Amino acid sequence: MGANDFINNYLVPIASTIQQVFVTPDSFIDQVMTTYRAQLMRLYEMDARKILVANVGPIGCIPYERTLNRVDENQCAALPNELALKFNKRLRPLIMELNANCKGATFVYANCCWKRPLLHFLLCFVLGFLIGFTPLVTS
User: Fold this and answer.
1) CA–CA separation, 43 and 12 (whole Å)
2) Which of 16, 48, 79, 103 has the fewest beta carbons closer than 10 A?
3) Which 8-state DSSP code applies to residue 61?
């Protein structure tokens, strides 16, 4: 689960406009959580026992979203970040539930990217472009 799932299914201009009118952000997050729970359970049913689950980073700080939403140079777009935060708030309890109910499995919640989002994206871009390395977890 990542930023692209939100961008491609709820935030794409024109293509997602109708969905945004009829589906509230909370309803969209409900759909995403239901699908994600099923995907994680499928991994468990296929004998995965150690699963790292990362939260979604600040989507509104991605250059595409900042440009699309015409925010100031040092700001991030509000709606994409709101979606990510709502998802993340519900993800940790899901991980706790899965750990309680899936015998022998360990689901680990990884909190990524939220302390300094613009700096994080710049760092990932530079490192990814120069040496092909993208940090997974920042503190």
Assistant:
1) 29
2) 103
3) G
pLDDT for res 134: 43
Q: Is the pTM of this model over 0.85?
A: no
Residues 63 and 77: their CA atoms lie apart, in Å, by 10
Confidence bin at 87 (pLDDT 50/70/90)? very high
Retrieve residue 10's tokens.
Answer: 């709820």
Is a pLDDT exceeding 50 seen at residue 139?
no
Contact predicate 62/121, CB 8 Å: yes
**CA atoms 44, 99, 7, 132: torsion sign:** negative
Q: In a 10 Å sphere around its CB, with 0-12 CB exposed, 13-18 middle and 19+ buried, how is residue 33 labelled?
A: middle
How far apart CA 70 and CA 65 sit, in angstroms, is 8
3-state secondary structure (DSSP) of residue 90: helix
Is residue 58 within 8 A of residue 81, CB to CB? The reply is yes
Confidence of residue 118 (pLDDT cuts 50, 70, 90): low
